[in-house]
Amino acid sequence: MKTDILLVEDSTEDAELAIRIIRQDNPAVRMKLLRDGADAINYLFDESENAKTHFFPKVIFLDIKLPRLTGPEVLKRLKANEVTRSIPVVIMTSSCQKCDIEECYSLGANSYLVKPIDFTRFQAMIISSSRYWLNYNIALPA
User: Fold this and answer.
1) What is the average per-residue pLDDT within 17-43?
2) Domain 5-136 belongs to what topology?
3) Is the dihedral of CA 25, 7, 46, 79 positive or negative?
């Protein structure tokens, strides 16, 4: 299945909420949810026969604090690889610490979003960012 958004999020509540918001806004969006950084790397760098059945996403929404491999570790691997380097990566986290922001941008993040606690603001952030990356951003030609 072709994927528009790859969501890498270990919080069940945040993941389910983001998916519900995006699907209500645009039911045609194809999403893939992965729960940890190692699964994201395995999915994106799968060299088995299964790799031929999935495609790179148009955008990756990536949490920082993930089990097994952290968001910055995943980001570093993605941006170091010629094939995955051009996939936009949006950091979506609860951390507003300067060191996290600087680290993610230095590793090649395309955007850094702090998850609001307020539902209405969270909803607006998810809708506007998914619309931007899926509808307005011009990706590098394949």
Assistant:
1) 95
2) Rossmann fold (3.40.50)
3) positive
